[in-house]
Recover the amino acids of this structure.
């Protein structure tokens, strides 16, 4: 253990003083006997030293510190809000377990710790164990924690009420099992303390469907739980790392829910710092893994976070400065991947995660929705080349914009030759293959309706989605964009496995890592990888904001200088409202149906404009504040249109 510290003190009279960690510091054992983020904390209150942090305290019996050389790390001043307490959660239920432990149900899966209030004699040990879910017998399910113990121990000093909160650990949990309580438990014995990077919540989405509202709740709590200084994958097992793929797929949804501009600016600085000299990007940032995560660092969909997230933040907040800071990193990643693709521009060699956790089956006639890693890697390389070209254009780097635009066109052609048939079949005919090809504009215009039709055919044949981490964020978007919003709604509203709503029917309060973390027969998925607080599949929130709530942006005017309001009715919804605190102010879209009447209320921030699309109507039927459009000040009809091949024309 070591400390590196610099404290700057500015006095009212203008004097400054600097306190640094040097040989003048002293040390002694304290009440924190052991503490780390995986194992938990043991605290012996009998070892407390009264007044040790006051100026009058005498430390003559303390020992001098040893000086160490500073580690060769790159220090970057954080621009993200710090981690703070953001909620307190009282128990919603207390009961005894057969083991004799007292179980506290805090009603919500979250990241943080428990505050313990207790009275008892000195030397009494109270043990707190933490878990996300319960097993079939009602006991804590901890197999999915792997080697993480998630256990706190408090040893009482005696003499009255004692309050304990750990200092150097956190847990991912909903349930706390407490052993050794010297008195009867009540609702004040345990309080959940939720912690997160203190990000302002900027988005709200409410619908007429309670399950969709719970889904939005779960997405927000998954983000709150895992945006803990870095975007972690999960907060409970022996991992809790900044996985790039998870952050990449969720970034757009994250920017709807909360102000993540500083959070991602900080983390993208880490990405550039850990990026290798050749341009490859490790699987996790910061990267403590070494080994394979460094040797095979360049991985499609994961390493593309270096490009996709800066562009997403630019669209969401209009900050050209972020693009400037990240541009070298963005370009280096694409150039590295381009070399990996070779002269044919098809990226084949090397380790790939592929469409992680795509649906698999024991049915021999359908072994699973496996999409070739060469297709996925080539598609993401083309997409990142396209985004670097757009970034270069936004920054006025015309030569780079031309070069990367050409690379995108060349890769588009290579993709079509390798993976696309003349009849619109893409790759292995999986939902992910079609979602990526359509979302990344990799198909000739003439094949778009055919490919979309094949996608719809597969969805209807399977009667559910089959996508994993990389295909899921784009699936509903491409269905809507190609005139199949009804199919998108059917997938969203499905309650049976696999679907977004299935975990909610099993009591989920955050997003699950797997579609079937708890199977329909109440058995658990492989405990080696089965997190119940994993935000990746929550990327559907982006589609929900844009299509149910109706709030979107115009890429030509980033930062919501020009908004797009286009709510879609579907699945029997009778109302929805969405709001977003943009850099210009509050943008709101709220609609309801009243018989055959569709009423839409929109608030547009000052000094911005909004383009509103009304589906399933004619211009002559539209009224704004009760008046025809040509009589409404500040409102004009831009165009009316139909979507080619649309089942429900606008």
């Amino acid at each position: 253990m070591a400390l590196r510290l610099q404290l700057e003190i500015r006095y009212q009279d203008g004097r400054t003083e600097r306190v640094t960690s040097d040989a003048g510091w002293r040390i002694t054992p304290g009440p924190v006997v052991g503490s780390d983020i995986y194992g938990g904390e043991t605290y012996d209150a009998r070892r407390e030293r009264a007044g040790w942090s006051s100026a009058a305290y005498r430390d003559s019996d303390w020992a001098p510190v040893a000086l160490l050389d500073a580690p060769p790390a790159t220090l970057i001043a954080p621009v993200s809000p710090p981690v703070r307490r953001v909620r307190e959660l009282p128990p919603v239920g207390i009961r005894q377990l057969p083991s004799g432990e007292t179980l506290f149900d805090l009603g919500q899966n979250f990241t943080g710790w428990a505050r313990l209030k207790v009275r008892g004699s000195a030397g009494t040990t109270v043990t707190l164990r933490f878990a996300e879910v319960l097993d079939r017998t009602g006991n804590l399910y901890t197999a999915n924690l792997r080697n993480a113990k998630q256990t706190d121990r408090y040893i009482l000093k005696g003499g009255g009420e004692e309050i304990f909160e750990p200092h150097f650990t956190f847990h991912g949990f909903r349930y706390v099992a407490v052993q050794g309580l010297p008195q009867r438990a009540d609702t004040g014995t345990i309080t959940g303390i939720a912690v997160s990077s203190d990000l302002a919540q900027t988005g709200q989405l409410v619908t007429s469907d309670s399950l969709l509202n719970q889904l939005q709740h779960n997405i927000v709590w998954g983000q709150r739980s895992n945006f803990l200084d870095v975007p972690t994958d999960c907060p409970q097992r022996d991992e809790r790392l900044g996985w790039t793929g998870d952050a990449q797929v969720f970034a757009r949804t994250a920017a709807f829910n909360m102000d993540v501009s500083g959070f991602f600016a900080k983390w993208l600085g880490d990405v550039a710092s850990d990026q290798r000299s050749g341009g490859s990007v490790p699987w996790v940032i910061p990267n403590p893994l070494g080994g394979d995560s460094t040797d095979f660092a360049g991985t499609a969909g994961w390493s593309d976070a270096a490009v996709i997230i800066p562009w997403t933040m630019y669209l969401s907040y209009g900050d050209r400065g972020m693009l400037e800071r990240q541009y070298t990193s963005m370009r280096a990643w694409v150039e590295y991947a381009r070399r990996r693709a070779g002269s044919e521009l098809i990226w084949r060699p090397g380790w790939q995660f592929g469409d992680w956790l795509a649906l698999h089956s024991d049915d021999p006639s359908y072994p699973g929705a496996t999409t070739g890693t060469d297709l996925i890697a080539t598609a993401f390389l083309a997409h990142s080349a396209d985004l670097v070209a757009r970034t270069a254009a936004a920054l006025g780097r015309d030569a780079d914009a031309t070069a990367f635009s050409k690379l995108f066109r060349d890769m588009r052609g290579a993709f079509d030759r390798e993976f696309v048939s003349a009849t619109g079949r893409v790759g292995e005919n999986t939902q992910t293959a079609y979602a990526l090809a359509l979302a990344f504009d990799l198909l000739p215009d003439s094949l778009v309706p055919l490919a979309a039709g094949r996608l719809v055919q597969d969805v209807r044949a399977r009667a559910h989605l089959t996508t994993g981490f990389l295909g899921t964020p784009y699936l509903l978007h491409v269905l809507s964009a190609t005139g199949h919003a009804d199919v998108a709604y059917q997938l969203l509203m499905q309650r049976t496995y696999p679907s977004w709503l299935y975990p909610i029917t099993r009591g989920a309060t955050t997003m699950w890592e797997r579609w079937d973390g708890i199977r329909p027969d109440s058995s658990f998925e492989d405990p080696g990888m089965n997190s119940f607080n994993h935000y990746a599949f929550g990327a559907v929130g982006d589609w929900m904001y844009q299509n149910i709530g109706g709030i979107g942006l115009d890429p030509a005017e980033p930062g919501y200088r020009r908004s797009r309001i286009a709510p879609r009715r579907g699945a029997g919804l009778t109302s929805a409202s969405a709001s977003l605190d943009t850099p210009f102010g509050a943008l709101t879209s709220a609609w309801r149906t009243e018989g055959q009447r569709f009423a839409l209320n929109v608030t547009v921030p000052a000094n911005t404009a909004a383009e509103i699309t009304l589906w399933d109507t004619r211009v002559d039927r539209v009224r704004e504040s009760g008046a025809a459009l040509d009589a409404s000040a500040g409102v004009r009809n831009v165009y009316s249109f139909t979507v080619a091949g649309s089942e429900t024309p606008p």
Remarks:
- The domain at 83-197 is CATH 2.60.120.260 (Jelly Rolls).
- The first helix runs from residue 210 to 226.
- Confidence is low (pLDDT under 50) at residues 642-650.
